[in-house]
Amino acid sequence: xxxxxxxxxxxxxxxxxxxxxxxxxxxxxxxxxxxxxxxxxxxxxxxxxxxxxxxxxxxxxxxxxxxxxxxxxxxxxxxxxxxxxxxxxxxxxxxxxxxxxxxxxxxxxx
Amino acid sequence: xxxxxxxxxxxxxxxxxxxxxxxxxxxxxxxxxxxxxxxxxxxxxxxxxxxxxxxxxxxxxxxxxxxxxxxxxxxxxxxxxxxxxxxxxxxxxxxxxxxxxxxxxxxxxxxxxxxxxxxxxxxxxxx
Lengths: 110, 127
What we know:
The complex is a heterodimer.
Chain A: E1 9-12, E2 18-23, E3 35-40, E4 47-50, E5 64-69, E6 72-77, E7 86-93, E8 99-101, E9 105-109
Chain B: E1 3-8, E2 11-12, E3 18-25, E4 32-39, E5 46-51, E6 57-59, E7 67-72, E8 77-82, E9 91-99, E10 102-103, E11 108-109, E12 116-117, E13 121-125
Parallel strand pairs in B: 2-13
Antiparallel strand pairs in B: 1-3, 3-8, 4-5, 4-9, 5-6, 7-8, 9-12, 9-13, 10-11
């Protein structure tokens, strides 16, 4: 299975909105509404931010939102804050009953 | 509050067997699938596989021939073994949980995400 495709990096200024894309295929992202997003700070474990494309776990800021169109899912962070600077990974369930992750996107808050 | 505590050998030589264990403290052990995910230095996450409390497993096809995940329900622990390691297996290895499906009279609930992760164990393969 091939990793999902994410941009290597994105950046934005405080208060702005940014969007991170995650492109797969009809066998994963496009075939199921089971895309999740994780935030990872250096040396830390990943933290679940979005699941089932657009649902937020309890405790996650409503500045984080998710969507999907076809084979591409997206994570949008609005009202960017310095604390949002981290690596972000998407993940999808696949038709092979496995999971696949994206290569990760480094978010820089300018 | 659920905690996943993991341990295992951190330095291996090529051709040796990687062995890690993850202990689950708090929460239900039987209600979840227990996963292993790894992250090579400077690279993205890679799903390795998962196991249920009953021992049902699911593996990444690219690693399946070298990987074994096992469970010890008496200790609420699960383990990972990777045979014949090479430098390409150098990574931080995380354990994580994924809730099992819930079957009810009116609808079924499915959970395809990892909601609790261990802190990670660094494994280096070098001669």
